[in-house]
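Title: Comparing notes on inverse folding

I've been comparing how different people in this forum approach sequence design from structure. To keep things fair, I'm posting one structure and asking everyone to reply with a full sequence. Here's the target:
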């Protein structure tokens, strides 16, 4: 029996007369790499911010780990790691020093061994003592993922983690996501406007446009039965009109 990790029902967010998210329902199960696909401005980032309790919903409910987020915020957030937008670091400190600071700020007792293990997960163990100012954009993205993994979260939320990366950097991040799910039993929500990234990485997905769900299900079922390209090209054209 599938175990739901996230259940969103009737989620809505308005800013004055503008509706960013409009009655959204979605379910993420344990072990999913859940693709959250839609064009820019579709409501993905707003939804993720509501899941992280950074933005208060206008209406609807969010349950995570079987509990309402509204009344169990601290307990739930302790079990979540996230990368929202571009991660920031102290550029004149090493990768290891940056993670040590993150650990102290979060109240997590992080050993040097744990830091090195986490850097190894994202392919940066050999650069642990290098200053972050020497890192490429792709390496900084991987360090951001390491920062999200430091406290061994059960759920990882990544908002557009490949934005601005070259093809090699995109492959690196994709491989990390797949490894976290398969080898480390993590549940991952991956937001993206890039169709191939979601199609190659996700096990289940939702396509949204203008704050509303278009289709949700297993990626291979949507590709086989619905025509993923047809759906995505259609909503992209609608968003541009």
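Reply #1:
Here's my take.
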């Amino acid at each position: 029996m599938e175990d739901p990790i996230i259940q969103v029902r009737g989620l809505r967010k308005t800013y004055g007369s503008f509706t960013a998210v409009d009655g959204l329902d979605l379910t993420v199960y344990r072990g999913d790499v859940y693709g959250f696909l839609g064009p820019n401005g579709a409501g993905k980032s707003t939804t993720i911010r509501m899941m992280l309790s950074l933005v208060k919903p206008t209406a609807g409910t969010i349950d995570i780990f079987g509990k309402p987020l509204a009344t169990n915020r601290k307990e739930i957030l302790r079990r979540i790691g996230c990368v929202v937008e571009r991660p920031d670091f102290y550029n004149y400190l090493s990768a290891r020093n940056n993670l040590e600071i993150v650990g102290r700020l979060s109240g997590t007792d992080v050993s040097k061994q744990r830091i090195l293990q986490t850097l190894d997960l994202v392919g940066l163990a050999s650069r642990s003592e290098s200053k972050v100012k020497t890192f490429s954009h792709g390496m900084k993205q991987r360090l951001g993922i390491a920062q999200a993994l430091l406290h061994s979260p059960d759920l990882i939320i990544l908002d557009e983690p490949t934005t601005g990366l070259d093809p090699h950097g995109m492959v690196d991040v994709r491989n990390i996501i797949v490894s976290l799910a398969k080898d480390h039993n993590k549940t991952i929500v991956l937001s993206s406007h890039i169709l191939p990234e979601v199609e190659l990485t996700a096990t289940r997905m939702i396509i949204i446009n203008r704050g509303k769900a278009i289709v949700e299900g297993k990626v291979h079922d949507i590709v086989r039965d619905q025509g993923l390209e047809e759906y995505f090209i259609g909503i992209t054209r609608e968003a541009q009109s």
